[in-house]
């Protein structure tokens, strides 16, 4: 499984977590690790160097943009996919101005197959 890229999900909703788990189980194009703890996320980033990080914009115990900034400066090749939130949804697309490694903004209502295809595409792509 050394060739299968890691995807880290940080602070995502339960709905998004279930859809990512379903997508990973059916497609097997990526390995998924989830956490709600920002310190654990930083540790995972250092240890595993995932290709994609899915960040929930309504993360409760940390700033999603602070984690994205860490990724942008320490690991610029890592692609970030944001999960829209209720408080912070960036539906106007401004997240792409705030986060230069943002590659997508998705809703938790996105179908598992579509979400899996998007995550796998970014996980299997080389740095832009």
Explain the overall architecture.
With 128 residues, this protein is of the alpha/beta class. Helix content is 41%, strand content 20%. It has a single domain, classed as Response regulator (Rossmann fold, 3-Layer(aba) Sandwich), CATH 3.40.50.2300. It is built from five helices and five strands; from the N terminus they run βαβαβαβαβα. Helix 3 (64-74) links the parallel strand 3 (52-56) and strand 4. The protein is globular, with a radius of gyration of 13 Å. The model has no long low-confidence stretch (mean pLDDT 87).
Indicate the topology.
Layout: E1 6-10, H1 14-27, E2 31-35, H2 38-48, E3 52-56, H3 64-74, E4 79-83, H4 95-98, E5 102-106, H5 112-124
Helix pairs in contact: 1-5
Are there runs of 5+ residues with pLDDT below 50, and where? none
**Can you write the helix and strand succession as a string?**
EHEHEHEHEH
Oligomer: single chain
Strand order of the largest sheet: 2-1-3-4-5
Q: Biggest β-sheet, characterized?
A: 5 strands, parallel
Specify the helix fraction band. 40-55%
- The CATH topology is given as Rossmann fold
CATH class value: Alpha Beta
Task: Give me the number of helical elements.
Answer: 5
Structural class: alpha/beta
The total of beta strands comes to: 5
Question: Rough shape?
Answer: globular
The end-to-end distance, rounded to whole angstroms, is 24 Å
């Amino acid at each position: 499984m050394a060739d299968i890229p890691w995807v880290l999900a940080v602070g995502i909703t339960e709905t998004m977590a279930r859809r990512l788990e379903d997508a990973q189980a059916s497609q097997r194009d990526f390995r998924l690790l989830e956490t709600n703890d920002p310190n654990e996320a930083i540790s995972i980033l250092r240890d595993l160097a995932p290709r994609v990080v899915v960040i929930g914009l309504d993360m409760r115990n940390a700033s999603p943009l602070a984690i994205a900034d860490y990724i942008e400066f320490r690991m610029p090749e890592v692609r970030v996919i944001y999960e829209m939130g209720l408080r912070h949804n960036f539906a106007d697309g401004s997240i792409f101005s705030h986060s230069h490694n943002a590659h997508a903004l998705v809703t938790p209502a996105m179908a598992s197959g579509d979400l899996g295809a998007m995550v796998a595409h970014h996980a299997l792509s080389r740095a832009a």
